[in-house]
Amino acid sequence: MGYPRGVSTFEALIAAQDRVEPRDEMPGDYRATLVRQIAQHAHSEIIGMQPEGDWITRAPSLRRKAILLAKVQDEAGHGLYLYAAAETLGVDRDDLLEALHTGRQKYSSIFNYPSLTWADVAAIGWLVDGAAIVNQVPLGRCSYGPYARAMVRICKEESFHQRQGFESLLTMSRGTPAQHAMAQDAVDRWWWPSLMMFGPPDAESPHSARSTAWGIKRFSNDTLRQRFVDLAVPQAEALGLTLPDPDLRWDEERGSWDFGTIDFTELREVVSGNGPCNEVRIGRRVAAHEDGAWVREAAAAYAAKQGTRGAA
Ligand code: FAQ
């Protein structure tokens, strides 16, 4: 392929910022890192359907209900798309689901927080999808082809999700005093957990150095977190809402917003299973999986029948 002799194809692909594809040789650790990250991302999309899903029956109008149904369905699609990307690395979807259900693989901390009011749905769109996009747009250029391509599609849909969240929040913010207060309360509760989505600080991130060297991560956790804050502050102002951080200050020299100290103990607690909704989220996921057993059995029986016919 024109790569220098003595250098493995994998190293040459990474050095040239080319894409690694499923059939290319790759180090075992690179494969394992991608499986870990892609599976965690897929699980996040699937568990992430729950906080918003809780509001589908209670959406305040037919229009809002249709929008929310479509958004939650998109999240299901993203999850399935990402499981398919993980499968190109040689893992089995059943094993990934088993790892989610038994807690061996993680999902994003953010989905362990409750959605208490209708305004939470809007705050999730604005802040959670907003943070996800900032984190994931650079992953559209990550070195593993199937994941990069998945990210491009997913971010396009999430941009739409983010805008609908902003629009819904703006409507509430400009509504009655009670609606405005509800919007403000949701932003107050989702702001800090959204900043935690970007992961531990750079100095405490065990995977960053290697993932960056392999072209999986393009920017560090802290760099992306700062980018998100810089985007969110003027948007909050446009919404007529405040962010719950008295230390937010424009830093002329850095050309960025300074922000307060994040409580990373909370992130560690939530990730290790002690968040407000961890048990509920996993419990419902496992129950849904068990309830769906008959569908999987029927699909397998149908496939087997088709296979027999095909062979005859
Ligand atoms: N929650 O060394 P790092 C969405 C773990 S989708 C839980 O920095 P890395 C769509 C990390 O896994 C949101 N665990 O790790 C939506 C590692 O644990 P391990 C999901 C976290 O991988 C919107 C350990 O801490 N998006 O929102 C978290 O280099 C609305 C050390 O961390 C993605 O997954 C956390 N927040 O960087 C759906 C994007 N942060 O495996 C519904 C892809 C860190 O050693 C509604 N993922 N950990 O046991 C990534 O970009 C990266 O994996 C990071 C972490 C940046 C999350």
Automatic annotation (TrEMBL):
GO terms for biological process: phenylacetate catabolic process. It holds the Pfam family PaaA_PaaC. GO terms for cellular component: cytosol. GO terms for molecular function: phenylacetyl-CoA 1,2-epoxidase activity. It comes from the Bacteria. This is 1,2-phenylacetyl-CoA epoxidase subunit A.
